[in-house]
Amino acid sequence: MQWDVVWNNFDYFLWGAFPNGPLGGLAVSIILAVLGIFGAFWIGLAAGLMRLSRNKLVKLTAVFYIEVIRGIPLLMLIFWFYFLVPIIFGSPLPEFHCALIAFIVFTGAYIAEIVKAGVTALPSGQMEAARGSGLSHYQAMRFVILPQALRNMIPSFVNQFVSLTKDTSLAYIIGVNELTRTATQVNNRTLSAPTEIFIAIAVLYFIVCYVLTYTSRRMEKHLARYQARDR
Amino acid sequence: MNYQFDWNLVLSGQYGQWIVEGLVTTLQISLVSIGFTLLLGTIIAVMRMSKFKPFEWFSFAFVEFFRNTPLLIQIFFWYFGSYSILPDSVNTWLYDHDFEFAAGVISLTFYTAAFIAEEIRAGINSIPKNQLEASRATGLSFMQAYRFVILPQAFRIIIPPLISQSLNLIKNSSLVMTIGVMDLTYMARQVESYSFHGFEAFTVATLIYLVISLIVSFSINMYNKHYLIQIKY
Question: Which of the residues A40, A166, B48, B77 has an alpha carbon 20 to 30 A from that of A63?
Fold first, then answer.
């Protein structure tokens, strides 16, 4: 075992060639995941609420988006943005942007389902009472339903964030310089310790994801106390 | 946008044949992996339920580790990294027998087994405890009780989540293109680089994945409607 290959390149795994060159490694993975989940939240919230709309056209648009995106592999979606954006716009987009847009569109569809489930899980009396006290449908959503539903959804959002963190490794395929790519670069350069390098990278991802998974489990227990129930 | 669509090019001839070959490879690697996943997932889940602590710890560590690391890294680990751990004879054998496919199957199996083990555990937990006690009391051994009483009931409950995990596996199998397994995604990419007609190739591949996924979710819905049993306490 040649663990010194890992230790010698450890800062490269964490932030690439940062002070002297572009940021890379785990730092880029985390930036991708954070920006991705932020964008996906808004898309998912919109699509989830559209999915619950009584307007058939709005609802069908959301269903189409959710079903199509959930039905295809993320890798396929990344290729769509990577190869087709140049065709449509005439000039290619930077890889980082391609990957980020693909992650947002992909995760948005999954968050939409979480939002839909979260809103339907609230007792229907909440909506009726809010409407009964004189709020409009929009106001009832905004001030009564969503604050409760979103709080209950936080653990699911964290789980989605874990998935996204793992999925950022796919950005490697179109050449974004994130953790997986730094690992393959070092592997191609040294050629002597693939086992050690990939174990080290797996452990780095594991630490980030496990901490989040653990947090979400703790939160789930904690938030259960505040849930509105039917009885 | 001056792009000439040429659907015929992708749907027939050499390129069409590539796409079909890719689909066959995707289905092959998925089905083989699903089989192994069910086996491994059940073993891990039963180990997690056992009273013997090391078994429990092992399966806990297995599930947490494989669930919280990216599939792509696991694929790279098995493909590039297993060389220095395995004995030379095994390596030689593997290189003669489609190592890419084997590494793909192993990584998909381990990754999905970690998820499926949790589903199976939930299924086993939903079977009332007295079922196990009653079957032990009738003289069955622990293994027999699981084999003949608990697992058949548990599996009936968890078929829908198992099917949806299998669908995830089919979609995830697109990642094995990174190590050179010529699956559907690999072939779409191949057509793109040979003909520069990526749009058509990716549309066809996407539609194939979409049809598979719609069939699967339709069958889950049918199952839920007709066969799902509720255990009464």
Answer: A166
Q: Please answer yes or no on whether B73 and A70 come within 8 Å at the CB atom.
A: no
B73, A187: Cβ pair inside 8 Å? no
Pair of tokens at residue A185: 């670069």
Can you tell me the distance from the alpha carbon of A150 to that of A41, in angstroms, rounded to the nearest whole number? 11
Q: Could you give the C-alpha distances from B171 to B22, B98, B108, B157, in angstroms and in order?
A: 13, 21, 11, 24
Nearest CA in chain A to B76: A198
CA distance B76 to chain A (A): 7
ipTM for the predicted complex comes to 0.90
Q: The pTM is what?
A: 0.90
Residue A76 has its nearest CB partner, among B85, B185, B199, at B185
**In terms of residues, how long is chain A?**
231
Cα separation, A176 vs A197, whole angstroms: 19
d(CA A207, CA B63): 14
Cross-strand partners of A23: A16
**How many residues would you count in chain B?**
233
Which of B62, B66, B72 best tests the A interface by mutation, with the highest count of A CBs <10 A?
A: B72
Residue A16 forms beta bridges with which residues?
A23
Smallest CA–CA distance from A205 into chain B, residue: B69
Min Cα–Cα distance to chain B from A68, Å: 7
Q: Is B197 on the interface with A (CB under 8 A)?
A: no
Give me the tens of pLDDT residue by residue for chain A, a chain 231 residues long.
778 888 888 888 888 887 787 888 899 999 999 999 999 999 999 999 999 988 999 999 999 999 999 999 999 999 998 887 887 777 888 889 999 999 999 999 999 999 999 999 888 888 889 999 999 988 999 999 999 898 889 889 999 999 999 999 999 999 899 999 999 999 888 888 888 899 999 999 999 999 999 998 888 888 877 776 665
Q: Which residue of B has its CA nearest to A204?
A: B69
Q: DSSP for B61-106?
A: HHHHHHHSS-HHHHHHIIIIIGGGTS-HHHHHHHHHS-HHHHHHHH
3-state secondary structure A188-204: HHHCCCHHHHHHHHHHH
Our CA angle for A195, A204, B90, nearest 5°, is 20
